[in-house]
Amino acid sequence: LNERGGLLSERVLARLQEPALRQIFLAWREARGYQALPRYTDVRTLLEPCRDHAFIAAIDQEDGPPRVRFLSVGAALTRRLGRDLVGTDVELAAVPADDLGTLASAYARCVRSRLPSHERARLATGDGPPIRFERLILPVSRDGRTLSHLFGVALFDPP
Predict the structure, then answer these.
(1) What is the pTM of this model?
(2) Which residues, 6+ apart, have CB-to-CB distance to 21 below 8 Å?
(3) In this predicted model, what pLDDT tens digit does every residue of 3-49 receive, in sequence order?
């Protein structure tokens, strides 16, 4: 890892509260080793501890503006979102670099930086108790160099 990536890696690890997310992050970091990115084949089972809350998205940067396409989305995450995202594209080109609040911005930051993205928040739900949200997005490569996929987990508490 370069200095920036190493420092970010330690900050992300320190912020991860959910033990399963820490386990996934540590496995991703170990698989990365000295490569620019971990290989897809080395981490394809990485999300297993949280598979119902996980997603895998392919990165398309060749034909037109960069975008992600969801290849798989866990059952619990699909229920929480109220729809299945498999096959859905998210355009990244129009996302400003300083946009911090949208789903597309989290993916865009991860694609631009090729570094993990972690977000945690408490969301008000009107009359009900607040919902705790934590998301980890990890960049992955087919060849160890070129970004090809994003692996992620989004947890909501209460589910």
Answers:
(1) 0.83
(2) 50, 134, 136, 153, 155
(3) 444 555 778 888 888 888 889 999 998 888 877 899 888 888 888 88
